[in-house]
Amino acid sequence: MPRTSLAVASVPAAGAGDREFAFSDEDFRDLAAIAHRQTGIVLADSKRQLVYSRLCRRLRHLGLSDFAEYRRRLADDPGESEAFINAISTNLTKFFREAHHFEHFRTEVAEPLLRGAGGRRRFRVWSAGCSTGEEPYSIAIVLRHAMRVGKNPDAHHDARVLATDIDTDVLARGAGGEYPADSFSEVPRPYRQAFGLDNTGDEPVTMDASLRELITFGQLNLIERWPMRGPFDVIFCRNVMIYFDAPTKATLISRFIDILAPGGFLYIGHSESLLGSHPGLKLIGRTIYRRDA
Ligand SMILES: C[S@@+](CC[C@H](N)C(=O)[O-])C[C@H]1O[C@@H](n2cnc3c(N)ncnc32)[C@H](O)[C@@H]1O
Fold first, then answer.
1. What is the DSSP secondary-structure string of 251-270?
2. 220 and 75 assigned to the same domain
3. CATH code (residue 122)
4. How many angstroms is it from 202 CA to the middle of ligand 1?
5. Which pTM value belongs to this model?
């Protein structure tokens, strides 16, 4: 489930006695610096309680007695780094979040491109920061539906969705492709009907094989080297860059431009904007950018 219920109110002073584990200013600063170095995520002072509560589970699991001991463990045990990153990343997401992107994707991208060249054109979409998979499955729903209703539904479509995240726990959930029955309320009705997401009862629903086969899930840290060469026709990177500082964000956007096909689209989150000028990329709609053709 998305991590939504994180209490940030009533932050006791560092080292306060009512905490289960001692958590000093130095502990927080050190862990925030590690998070920034390894992931680009900025953990401001206001995130102190959030970091404490997420990592408490790790301390209990490892049988440690305080955060100083946890920092030593993190330094000595490379395996803990993955658990640390999984714990501090925020994974809130849902199907068809920010629906206007999917409408634009359908009308301006998927349907016209899949219609072209008898449907044989190579077509690549990247969900960068895909969390538990609701975003790439929403993309796959639009894509598969566009293939089925296209002029030549039997044409061979070379269409793929790459879904990446830094967090291995959420990737496993996405690859599993199973979601609670009440997750689909924002999925437009025709899609719910087409892909067995309507009247599903109470049991979890496994996404249709025709959707799953379009998506490849893989771990990728956006601030490190990317193994793929692209180009991508579309990149969804929504509600990821809000956690980064301005230089990290600027570098990432330049790299997105480089890996986008000419005329390709970049969708970003509702509260994000591309500060500064990025030659070659134009704002063409609400949080929708297009690389020059
Ligand atoms: C709030 S979720 C956004 C999910 C989805 N894009 C959406 O808008 O619904 C942010 C995701 O970005 C991922 N993330 C954060 N830093 C990352 C990094 N350096 N590399 C790759 N993914 C990262 C987190 O693990 C998390 O799953």
1. HHHHHHHHHEEEEEEEEE-T
2. no
3. 3.40.50.150
4. 28
5. 0.92
